[in-house]
């Protein structure tokens, strides 16, 4: 990353266009015009420099050279660029444009849209106060150019690989644990069994199939039923006469003639 530092109209943009590709230059005025359609409107500096930081990070991630064309007069503005270079592990170089104040004012008056002498004088004083501190801020290299050097200097860009921390291979996420499958009991009716919370679950044995009762025989004429044997039933050795005895015959009495007394047992 190359940071151009100096007051307005000191020749930063002309120097960048002469020595670097247009795609390598990231200008704050260009970003401001993309944000609010006016490259001189200082009310939208926050949005403009947010765009500058975004483009810088995208290009530096691809190991592309970036030339920051802004005044870079304040320490916070330079520190943001230093932090980005440190984060992406790329070298950063500061180029200081030490041009006389009257030369800057004269160039500004020739512009189509000038910023005015008061603005240039204020920026020039800030730049003079910051030149000594810039060398102690942590830049890998600080180059200072005088007004006569801008037409004679030559810039050679040497691309070199950037030492980056080795990236670890992506780790595969552990496979989710699967619960062991329970054995499927044989099909058939099962008897419900109450379980107690926390108690081990046991497999319930399948109940034996219940056979349906046999169908009744088809209806027909009732079978003859023999009467129960009576008190005088025959035994296997009794004869037919004994099985059906005849009632006893009444005793015989001799006939009684008229006028005679009936016989008694004493006669």
List the helices and strands and how they pair.
Elements: E1 2-5, H1 12-19, E2 25-27, H2 28-36, H3 45-61, E3 67-69, H4 75-88, E4 93-98, H5 101-109, H6 117-134, E5 141-146, H7 240-243
Helix pairs in contact: 2-3, 3-4, 5-6
Mind explaining what this structure looks like?
The structure is a single chain. The chain is of the alpha/beta class and 267 residues long. It has a domain at 2-149: Rossmann fold (3-Layer(aba) Sandwich). Helix content is 30%, strand content 8%. It has seven helices and five strands, in the order βαβααβαβααβα. A five-stranded parallel β-sheet has the order 2-3-1-4-5, sandwiched between helices. It is elongated, with a radius of gyration of 64 Å. The protein starts with a strand and ends in a 24-residue tail after the last helix.
The third-level CATH topology of the domain at 2-149 is Rossmann fold
Cα shape? elongated
H-E string: EHEHHEHEHHEH
Q: Runs with pLDDT <50, length 5+? A: 230-243
Strand pairing plus helix content: what structural class? alpha/beta
Q: Oligomeric form of this entry?
A: single chain
Sheet with the most strands? 5 strands, parallel
CATH architectural name of the domain at 2-149: 3-Layer(aba) Sandwich
Count of alpha and pi helical runs: 7
**CATH homolog superfamily of the domain at 2-149:** P-loop containing nucleotide triphosphate hydrolases
Quote the beta fraction: 5-15%
Distance between the termini: 177 Å
Strand order of the largest sheet: 2-3-1-4-5
> Class of the domain at 2-149, according to the CATH hierarchy?
Alpha Beta
- Helical content band: 25-40%
- Write down the Rg: 64 Å
Please tally the β strands and state the result: 5
